Amino acid sequence: xxxxxxxxxxxxxxxxxxxxxxxxxxxxxxxxxxxxxxxxxxxxxxxxxxxxxxxxxxxxxxxxxxxxxxxxxxxxxxxxxxxxxxxxxxxxxxxxxxxxxxxxxxxxxxxxxxxxxxxxxxxxxxxxxxxxxxxxxxxxxxxxxxxxxxxxxxxxxxxxxxxxxxxxxxxxxxxxxxxxxxxxxxxxxxxxxxxxxxxxxxxxxxxxxxxxxxxxxxxxxxxxxxxxxxxxxxxxxxxxxxxxxxxxxxxxxxxxxxxxxxxxxxxxxxxxxxxxxxxxxxxxxxxxxxxxxxxxxxxxxxxxxxxxxxxxxxxxxxxxxxxxxxxxxxxxxxxxxxxxxxxxxxxxxxxxxxxxxxxx
Amino acid sequence: xxxxxxxxxxxxxxxxxxxxxxxxxxxxxxxxxxxxxxxxxxxxxxxxxxxxxxxxxxxxxxxxxxxxxxxxxxxxxxxxxxxxxxxxxxxxxxxxxxxxxxxxxxxxxxxxxxxxxxxxxxxxxxxxxxxxxxxxxxxxxxxxxxxxxxxxxxxxxxxxxxxxxxxxxxxxxxxxxxxxxxxxxxxxxxxxxxxxxxxxxxxxxxxxxxxxxxxxxxxxxxxxxxxxxxxxxxxxxxxxxxxxxxxxxxxxxxxxxxxxxxxxxxxxxxxxxxxxxxxxxxxxxxxxxxxxxxxxxxxxxxxxxxxxxxxxxxxxxxxxxxxxxxxxxxxxxxxxxxxxxxxxxxxxxxxxxxxxxxxxxxxxxxxxxxxxxxxxxxxxxxxxxxxxxxxxxxxxxxxxxxxxxxxxxxxxxxxxxxxxxxxxxxxxxxxxxxxxxxxxxxxxxxxxxxxxxxxxxxxxxxxxxxxxxxxxxxxxxxxxxxxxxxxxxxxxxxxxxxxxxxxxxxxxxxxxxxxxxxxxxxxxxxxxxxxxxxxxxxxxxxxxxxxxxxxxxxxxxxxxxxxxxxxxxxxxxxxxxxxxxxxxxxxxxxxxxxxxxxxxxxxxxxxxxxxxxxxxxxxxxxxxxxxxxxxxxxxxxxxxxxxxxxxxxxxxxxxxxxxxxxxxxxxxxxxxxxxxxxxxxxxxxxxxxxxxx
Lengths: 360, 693
Fold this sequence. Notes:
The complex is a heterodimer of chains A (360) and B (693). Chain A is 3% helix and 52% strand. With 360 residues, chain A is mainly β. In chain A, the strands form seven sheets. Chain A has a five-stranded mixed beta sheet with strand order 1-26-25-24-23, with no helix packed on it. Chain A has a four-stranded antiparallel beta sheet with strand order 2-29-28-27. In chain A, strands 3-4-5-6 form a four-stranded antiparallel beta sheet. Chain A is globular. Chain B has 693 residues and is mainly α. Classes of the chains: A mainly beta (360), B mainly alpha (693). At the A-B interface, loops of A face helix 2, helix 19, helix 21, helix 23 and helix 25 of B. Chain B: One of its GO terms (molecular function) is structural constituent of nuclear pore. Chain B: This is Nuclear pore complex protein Nup85.
């Protein structure tokens, strides 16, 4: 098991998200930024910065860290409720999901290191139970289109799916689509949405008919709860879900009537988040209540489909005994930088050159 | 916890108790006496898990007994919530780090205790100490940034607590771990001196630097009033290199007498040659070297002593004599020079018993402590003395007064070392479990540490600990679905099936109340609460009867998706939904077959039977023959059972009385009319079926 670097931050970290580069598609900034959200006593959003390791490699000999800190806090702001999810809409706009059922847009102001700011722009209550109590907004995802009117879709414990343009949150639409808790959401394509549910279902929706379920997938052989869902970055028919039993399920839904599914039992407890590696999508990364991250090679090496060519690399830290709730991998750098947050009040990080990351 | 008579040598003082101040106060400004005179007092209730206190104003006498014209103040209506135990946010990194070490220790000691051995525990102990030192550094950084005096005082107090904890833990590590490692030299002395100089640093290097910087030459150095006391301290702490360097620096001073200069150089030379033990040297070999060095030092002391009889006024020579006496291990001189008992014990160990092992410490400590006023000892002193005396019961009590973290973790490591067993009889309950539970309770008072707190309960490995986990977890707020999953994970970890069931029931009720019927069924299904599932199904059925729209389909599909759920009412609702779909699609034969199956298999609740029979009327009266003669007889039997069976009637009456369901007296009357129509339809269908068949 490989070890993660740890930075105590004295708050329960429930969500982390890298911010896109501030100019263009190539990350030419010497500093990278990411946002963390926390819950329990400190309901906060924190903007962190860390040095870009791609630049560090070039000047390795003369670069020395003054402190052992993995990241430096540059701005923070309180959040209305526990932060359950963060999505980056652009380098200076993020969307957050709250335990009070609200979706909020925050603007990030970049200045010098001490001048950065996080400010609330707009907020809307998207999830509410029938009796009027606010329902936890469990996850959200921003529509993958390069347009200003991209939508944010959110889901909640009220079983509703809500859509709103980021530029106009008050035009929110909600549809009740599940009788249990919706635990995860993703956009496989700009017009298709997938959700995972506590009852162990994956449901697909066409954005043009948002209240109608276009397909439902279930694993009939096992009784799972699904905790999260993600879609492949380029193959929209591939989905991955994390279960309450510690498995990561990989779905191929090309044939919606007979989807194929493969299970990887890589964790010992609930899988809270799952992602295809952004620069090497033959790997699925997952984090779990068992205080570890797993990097699973799901593509077989040869055409024979030999399972021995597959492997799982686990990442953890001795000083992090509790659940790893969230993680994100920076898609903009050559060096793979993974940042994660945990119940032990830690930020965890692994930086590895792209070629090392692929080695098992 | 009660303690046995054997160790009741002292009265445990709770010096750290502090008063809680309510803000804003309960007295209206300047009306304290009026407030107290008017039948008022304070009442409180302690939270069973977090030791939080709810305080409010109450009457000394019942209100009925006293005059009604008592003035009511605004504070009378307040309830104050106070924390008697609070974990400051600054402790979170320390609590989480040490929790990780604690959990890892329980894990490896549970599986491979013999392989881990003392070396493994020593590594774990070092991790605990590192965490304490990190916390001290973090607090000291914070202290520099504090603006407000009150916060600065708090940080100062925290630093003191962590430094005390480190000193105690370090000594425990030396006595029970470091000196028990395999090796030829098992002397406690080098460890003790390292402990002493690390935890009670003196004389300070800055003082030495200041003295050296203040002097341009040897004469100026000799003229510094602080020099000779500083040199004596260096000798007492065994800082030989610094001592020798400074003696050599001061020796050329013109003001120094010739004998003093000579013996200063000589002392510097001999100090540099003090033997140091190594791990690969036997005790005998070291003793031989030590004896030679000690004899040389004794000769120097004797020589200076004879000179002093002639030069009584030479203060520098006197100081050199004192240094020589300290270095040759003269106990009286050491006692006179040492400010702290730790200093005296260290110098005696270093110069009188350089090969002493840990088991010599109690006797030496006893001898040293006779010269000190133990009444003025701090809790740190008392805990250290108890540890040196191997009085673990006393040690744990004082440790707990310093901080509950310390007593919990020291009792845990002592338990792993097997040295706590002989002290268990002194305590009324298992001390390890008791202190772990105390720490767990303390951590539970912080919202971010609920899981850590529960682990301290659970890892005590006693039935009381597991019960505490159970009692605590069922009382925690179910704030979100994910939090509930985490709590269920804790239940699974400690095998708490009853607690898991209670959480599922709570979740089920919570979802039901919020109108999330599918999710509620899911939770009740996990605990096989068939009664609750039946009630929710009845509610779904009632909503259908009320609105006429069959909208529960997605709910049923959602909860049945896993395939593991079996319940008559759910099956009934599913079949009835299938009946509707077949009827809507015009497949009357399939619809009739499903309806008959519902009635014959008795999956439907009795109160739903009249409606099902009514649903059969259009099929009986339709153009095509749906029900055969046998089917029709079955339908008639169901109708007869409905009117004849007392059980069925009772069920219908109960349903009519249920405010949740929409049946009324008039509905029952109209039901009688519909039953008549049904009977006629059956008779006609029977006749038709005979003809067709």
